[in-house]
Design a protein that fits this description.
1 helix; mainly alpha; about 0% strand; rod-shaped; about 60% helix
Length: about 50
């Protein structure tokens, strides 16, 4: 006779809220720098050519 084995695997996904926060701050800083450079170009560099 054949024995049936039931194996249950429980996985818990743990999210590190500190890591999520650090990643958010990093990408927010990238966006702020990008928009600051864009603002500088629009206000100071582009008017030189017109």
């Amino acid at each position: 006779m054949e024995e049936k084995k039931n194996i249950e695997v429980h996985r818990e996904e743990k999210t590190d809220s500190g890591l999520v926060g650090a990643t958010f701050i990093k990408y927010a800083a990238y966006l702020i720098i990008f928009f600051a450079v864009l603002w500088f170009l629009i206000n100071y560099v582009f008017p030189m050519f017109s």
